[in-house]
């Protein structure tokens, strides 16, 4: 079973949560990409909880947090394979992935003490611009020292599995069928080189790149 949201939903949620907590010098939405990555990577390596048990947030933010908590409950009852893939549509930056990882940590789907998780975060790159940036973002992701858990822990046969989705519909709207498919082809080749560099396993199926 897979689930997921559009990337801006996670940024909006963290902006609201952090405004409530008052732990940043300025709103999350005003942070640069580098500042976001620095802050999230620090939090991902601690066990400090950020989100309170009660959710004094908007309906949209509360629903997002509850979704991760429900997944945790399902995994505890039925095993990790019941729901193990989270797809982030319209992925544009490294922070888009890290925001979801932090939500997963808050729900108990990732343990920073041993860098192991029970959910795989899958970016979906859709526009031509995002397809062109996909290899850079994935390389930044793999270069993070604690990110090994992104490999699908629930896949004992392939511990180096990491999925990256390359979309068609929005890229087609940008530049047409032939151009968008050429961009996808180029992204696949670059992603394969990155996979080899980091010892990951690469494959391609129905518009999905598997690293």
What does this structure look like?
With 211 residues, this protein is α/β, with parallel strands linked by helices. It has one domain (2-210). It has 7 helices and 8 strands. The protein has a 6-stranded mixed beta sheet with strand order 1-2-5-6-8-7. It has a two-stranded antiparallel sheet with strand order 3-4. A hairpin with a 4-residue loop joins strand 3 (110-111) and strand 4. Helix 1 (7-21) packs across helix 3, helix 2 (33-44) packs parallel to helix 4 (94-106) and helix 6 (169-175) packs across helix 7 (177-197). The two termini are 19 Å apart. Residues 149-157 and 203-211 have low confidence and may be disordered.
Structural topology:
Elements: E1 2-6, H1 7-21, H2 33-44, H3 59-78, E2 85-89, H4 94-106, E3 110-111, E4 116-117, E5 120-125, H5 128-143, E6 163-166, H6 169-175, H7 177-197, E7 203-205, E8 208-210
Parallel strand pairs: 1-2, 2-5, 5-6
Antiparallel strand pairs: 3-4, 6-8, 7-8
Helix pairs in contact: 1-3, 1-4, 2-4, 5-7, 6-7
User: Radius of gyration over alpha carbons?
Assistant: 17 Å
Overall 3D form: globular
Average pLDDT score: 84
The assembly state of the depicted protein chains is single chain
Strand order of the largest sheet: 1-2-5-6-8-7
Overall structural class, as computed from helix and strand content, comes to alpha/beta
């Amino acid at each position: 079973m897979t689930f997921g949201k559009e990337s801006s939903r996670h940024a909006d949620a963290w902006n609201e949560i952090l405004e409530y907590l008052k732990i940043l010098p300025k709103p999350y939405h005003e942070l640069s990409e580098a500042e976001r990555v620095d802050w999230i990577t620090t939090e991902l390596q601690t066990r400090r909880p950020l989100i309170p048990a009660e959710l004094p947030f908007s309906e949209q933010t509360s629903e997002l947090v509850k979704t991760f908590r429900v997944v945790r409950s399902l995994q505890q009852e039925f095993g990790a394979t019941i729901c193990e893939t989270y797809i982030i549509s319209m992925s544009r930056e490294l922070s888009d992935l890290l925001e979801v990882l932090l939500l997963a940590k808050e729900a108990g789907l990732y343990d920073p003490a041993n860098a192991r998780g029970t959910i795989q975060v899958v970016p979906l790159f859709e526009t031509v611009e995002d397809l062109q940036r996909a290899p850079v973002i994935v390389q930044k992701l793999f270069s993070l020292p604690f990110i090994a858990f992104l490999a699908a822990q629930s896949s004992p046969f392939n511990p180096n599995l990491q999925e990256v989705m390359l979309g068609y519909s929005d890229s087609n709207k940008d530049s047409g069928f032939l151009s968008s498919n050429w961009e996808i082809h180029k992204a696949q080749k670059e992603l394969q080189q990155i996979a080899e560099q980091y010892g990951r396993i690469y494959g391609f199926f129905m518009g999905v790149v598997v690293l």
